[in-house]
Design brief:
The complex is a heterodimer of chains A (about 110) and B (about 160).
Chain A (H helix, E strand, L loop, with lengths): L6 E4 L3 E2 L3 E9 L21 E8 L2 E8 L8 E8 L3 E9 L4 E10 L1
Parallel strand pairs in A: 2-8
Antiparallel strand pairs in A: 1-3, 3-6, 4-5, 4-7, 7-8
Chain B lengths: L2 H35 L3 H12 L5 E2 L2 E4 L3 E4 L3 E7 L9 E8 L6 E7 L6 E7 L5 E9 L4 E12 L5
Parallel strand pairs in B: 1-9, 3-9
Antiparallel strand pairs in B: 2-4, 4-7, 5-6, 5-8, 8-9
Classes of the chains: A mainly beta (about 110), B alpha+beta (about 160).
Chain lengths: ~110, ~160
């Protein structure tokens, strides 16, 4: 498991029904591409987060497949149209099988 | 102007021309080496074909939010927006991003749902050098759109 992986998520707390809101996410991860060489001249093995999935109240909202061309500490922003109050669940999957999760609530008036 | 001066001016001009020619040859050499080490347009097309299964993409509908010049190839911000009403029966399913000058052409695949409200997303990517960024959008009705934009990279970002 990669060290010090910390997911961060920014979602506004309140929205009006039918609003399209922007969600910003950031997760600390070195995203080792597998093409870099270490001090010993050998390739450092690939170790990246390859998938990110987002659901709202259990329904799929957005997902992304990441390849080694994604920068270290991957940032991802996207949109959601909110019709009801609920909870966003964010899930990142590492090459080594580790899963990092984060949740965020929103109140829709 | 004396004949002697005119002559020397000519030689200088010739010398400049020759120098320019030499630089062009050198630049050509660089391009060739880059071509063998990295992905190219053909590899991108092949990767696209693999993902969308031989459908012919139409130009348009996609707009990029990309810098024209990226100072650091390690983190190049990239935003992509696809025109679509995003309703249950007409929405953007996926947007695939490629970079034709990277060691591997793929960058990311983004999957939207009608709940997205807007087919727009942004991330940060690595670019090994100046190259084209390509986006291919798959719509829910099966149609495919494509767009590309060049990014000039001052310092490449692929380690090694």
């Amino acid at each position: 498991m990669a060290k010090n992986v910390k997911p961060r998520v920014r979602v506004q707390k309140k929205a009006a029904k039918g609003d399209v809101i922007e969600i910003k996410t950031l997760i600390s991860h070195k995203m080792e591409s597998g093409r870099r060489k270490g001090k010993d001249g050998k390739l450092i093995p690939r170790s990246i987060i390859n998938k990110m999935e987002v659901t709202f109240n259990g329904k799929p909202l957005f997902s992304a497949d990441w390849l080694p061309a994604i920068s270290a500490n991957p940032y991802m922003s996207f949109f959601a149209k909110v019709e009801e109050s609920g909870e966003f669940a964010f899930k990142w999957t590492d090459d080594d099988g580790s899963v990092y999760e984060k949740k965020a609530k929103i109140t829709v008036a | 102007m004396s004949t002697k001066q005119a002559l020397s001016a000519l030689t200088r001009r010739e010398a400049l021309l020759l120098a320019a020619g030499a630089t062009m040859v050198a630049a050509g050499g660089v391009v060739l080496t880059a071509g063998t080490a990295n992905a190219d347009q053909k590899m991108v097309d092949e990767a696209v074909m693999k993902l969308i299964g031989g459908k012919k993409p139409t130009e348009g509908k996609i707009s990029f939010d990309l810098p024209q010049i990226a100072e650091n190839g390690n983190t190049v911000p990239v935003g992509v927006t696809v025109e679509s009403p995003m309703t249950a029966d007409n929405y953007v399913k996926s947007v695939h991003l490629f970079a034709d000058g990277n060691p591997a052409p793929g960058v990311a695949s983004l999957h939207f749902t009608p709940m997205s409200g807007k087919a727009s997303a942004a991330t940060r990517m690595r670019l090994a050098g100046t190259q084209n960024v390509v986006a291919v959008a798959e719509m829910s009705d099966g149609s495919v759109y494509r767009a590309q934009q060049e990014v000039k990279v001052t310092i490449g970002g692929c380690g090694g």
